[in-house]
Design brief:
alpha/beta; binds magnesium ion; globular; Enolase-like, domain 1; 16 helices; TIM Barrel
Length: 433
């Protein structure tokens, strides 16, 4: 593919603007790292829905990124569209590329696969910048503000949602999972006390669960009976009675419920004193979210389902949330995640980082957690870290005593498994100069 430095207008007499807007002046041409190639691969045998991305530069530095859901759509956006902006251009002009691509997507709605593709690119560009500076990204964001990051264990399974056994799953629509030592979702219902003891023995101080999903699948979230409530709340009550205050408990509703059922759930959970209720309601109506917080008088987390500053700014201004939950590879990458975390701090609302969605998402969240004082937690899923993530990246996230260690190597501090990019996979795509 030819360099797009000097785009040619397809219409005589009409100047070609694309590729020039927001491109910074480059007076020191020798300092510019030019993007030479973008690769993507979808490891659907390992983690269906995940798109892995690498950006190459003429200096030989490779940046790594990823995003999750509708991976083939994201790869098409990267290669067929966004690459036109990036190939041949300055790899370190992160904000310039972000703003240009964001605004082009904003012309048809911003959200969705476009923003996730942009998130993957943003991670890779920050990874390149970190390697150029020989510093971890959190230092380039102004950190560290803490020497380790508080985490909680989300009680999923190695194959929550999509899994490599042929079940592609649906977003936020996982099954109870299978028994086993890392079957945390299954064990919540069948062995809650053993699960709590096991997590405490590993040093965790907080857990997140989604005990209402099965009920939502039955009734579509319109209603919840008292019997169903009891089935879902009972394991949490047992854990609270068993461990006392040693574990914080968060509850995720995955956005399944309508207002009356959500209020019933909130009231039933009051006895276990959750640290937050997350997405009990769908996040598509700000007025109802605000109403739910006011009526329930429970701490509310909103939501990795929201994207961009514009969404979160409304939630914060309307006082609809006690915590904001951000997915770095959905919301617009490390750039937008850091901006959002700072925005939330202006409202004295703590920011927390989402995972379940891929190993680089976790590392991106750790960097922002390490750099923004108002961040309070990084979500982790031990069932993924100890299984599927090992095939995707070159190191393991180290968690001790309820904290993750900072990724101290340059850039993201982690590399995607290079064997995934050797071109053998049918899902591999590359766009180069
Ligand atoms: Mg959630």
């Amino acid at each position: 593919m030819a360099s797009q430095q000097e785009p040619v207008s397809p219409m005589p007499g009409v100047p070609a603007m694309e590729g020039k807007m927001y491109l910074p002046p480059t007076p020191l041409d020798d300092d510019v790292l030019r993007i030479t190639k973008i690769e993507t691969v979808i490891p659907d045998d390992l983690f269906p829905g995940l798109m892995l991305l690498r950006i190459h530069t003429d200096a030989g530095i490779i940046g790594h990124g990823e995003s999750y859901y509708l991976a083939h759509g994201m790869a098409a956006i990267v290669h067929d569209w966004m690459a036109r902006r990036l190939i041949g251009h300055d790899a370190l002009a992160i904000e310039s590329h972000w703003r240009f691509l964001y605004e082009r997507c904003a012309n048809f709605g911003v959200r969705g696969a476009e923003l996730r593709a942009l998130s993957a690119i943003d991670l890779a560009l920050w990874d390149i910048l970190g390697q150029v500076c020989n510093k971890p990204i959190y230092r380039l964001l102004g950190g560290p503000v803490r020497d380790r990051v508080p985490v909680y264990n989300s009680c999923g399974n190695p194959a929550y949602g999509p899994n490599p056994h042929g079940n592609l799953g649906w977003p936020g629509y996982g099954s109870l999972g299978d028994p086993g030592p890392l079957g945390d979702s299954y064990n919540l219902f069948h062995h809650p006390l053993e699960l709590a003891d096991d997590l405490l023995s590993e040093g965790y101080t907080a857990i997140k669960t989604w005990p209402f999903d099965r009920i939502a699948h039955k009734h579509g979230g319109m209603q919840i009976s008292l019997d169903d409530l009891e089935e879902a709340v009972a394991p949490l009550r047992k854990i609270r009675e068993h461990v006392g205050n040693k574990l914080e408990i968060m509850v995720d509703g995955h956005g399944f419920f309508m207002l009356p059922a959500a209020l019933r759930i909130a009231e039933a959970l009051r006895e276990v004193q959750p640290l937050w209720l997350e997405d009990i309601l769908k996040t598509d109506n700000l007025h109802t979210l605000k109403d739910f917080r006011q009526q329930s008088r429970m701490p509310i987390s909103i939501s990795e389902m929201l994207l961009t500053r514009a969404d979160f700014a409304q939630v914060l201004a309307e006082q609809a949330a006690d915590f904001v939950m951000i997915d770095p590879t959905w919301v617009g990458g490390i750039s937008e995640t850091a901006r959002l975390a700072h925005l939330a701090q202006a409202y004295n609302v703590p920011a927390t980082m989402h995972d379940c969605t891929g190993p680089l998402t976790l590392f991106a969240g750790l960097h922002v957690n390490a750099a923004v004082p108002g961040c309070c937690f990084q979500e982790t899923v031990r069932a993924q870290i100890r299984t599927i993530y090992k095939f995707l990246i070159d190191r393991e996230v180290v968690i001790k005593n309820g904290f993750a260690e900072l990724p101290r190597d340059p850039g993201l501090g982690v590399r995607l498994n290079p064997e995934l990019f050797n071109g053998d996979r049918k899902t591999y795509r590359a766009t180069a100069e």
